[in-house]
């Protein structure tokens, strides 16, 4: 079983954005030291508690401080940008860090309607044109436009020896079918989806169009918190759970709350229902419990790779969670 890391660069209460971004670098280094396959960092805009609005910038910083682990975006939100610029940026990264760069793309806004408007005035129209933008990006990455195409003489320079590996991210049948149609590997966000994920990923495999260079490949991203004991894992998870509850009410502007704040919070009956729903989408436990649950997810989805998202109040708890999982799964 391959394990990888999905990072949202969380900012905890009392922490600065710089602290959070430096913690992201440390996490990538821990991932490399503990045999994780990839480190991906997400793109968010004007969302309290999340520090990374420019994955391509962070990947240059992280790539220079790691040596082997694959690094990538999870995801670049393509409707905000022209495919040519995205290809150029990731070609620079792939030139600097050969055979290590992934380019994950998605079509969500990554923030509020106002943030989307500030980024791109035609976001909704661009979402409709997303399949065409994916094709354009593929051609810029492969440098293989047909001779009569308007961009046939345009290169997304520099051209790396090994191009970035393009992934489509999503959590719907629509995204699964698009990945299959375009012959792209597919990353499914189980931790965000309320749908039947197994059915969606199967739909991807069943509809994948084989080419002479591609085969179907999937990653399933799950939310996990691991600690030495189940009780400790539950305590650590309480701050992330409270942050989600506050976010649902529009009250999460101060970052990830502390464990003490989470334990003293008085939940309403309606909020208790929300907590139950949040925990159903999480894996929380000691190393043996987490490994068994990860294997269950892997077998359920028939995937070979799981990508783990872990958000905690203390960065040290997050780093330790990934170390414990790796030690249990790889040794």
Secondary structure elements and their pairing?
Blueprint (H helix, E strand, L loop, with lengths): L1 E6 L9 H17 L4 E4 L13 H9 L6 E8 L5 H14 L4 E6 L6 H7 L3 H6 L1 H13 L22 E6 L2 H10 L3 E4 L7 H11 L10 E9 L3 H19 L10 H6 L4 H12 L1 E4 L1 H15 L3 E5 L5 H16 L1
Parallel strand pairs: 1-2, 1-9, 2-3, 3-4, 4-5, 5-6, 6-7, 7-8, 7-9
Helix pairs in contact: 1-13, 2-3, 3-6, 7-8, 9-11, 12-13
Describe the structure.
The chain has 331 residues and is an alpha/beta fold. It has one domain: Alpha-Beta Barrel (TIM Barrel), CATH 3.20.20. The protein is built from 13 helices and 9 strands. It has helices at 17-33, 55-63, 83-96, 113-119, 123-128, 130-142, 173-182, 197-207, 230-248, 259-264, 269-280, 287-301, 315-330, and strands at 2-7, 38-41, 70-77, 101-106, 165-170, 186-189, 218-226, 282-285, 305-309. Strands 1-2-3-4-5-6-7-9 form an 8-stranded parallel β-barrel, surrounded by 8 helices. The longest helix has 19 residues, at 230-248. The mean pLDDT is 96.
In the CATH scheme, the class would be Alpha Beta
Number of helices: 13
Described by strand count, sense and barrel closure, the largest sheet is: 8 strands, parallel, barrel
Number of structural units classed as domains: 1
CATH superfamily: Luciferase-like domain
Query: Could you give the distance between the termini?
Result: 12 Å
The CATH architecture can be named as: Alpha-Beta Barrel
Q: So what's the oligomer here?
A: single chain
Shape: globular
Regions with pLDDT < 50 over 5+ consecutive residues?
none
Q: Strands across the major sheet, in which order?
A: 1-2-3-4-5-6-7-9
| Beta-strand proportion | 15-25%
CATH topology: TIM Barrel
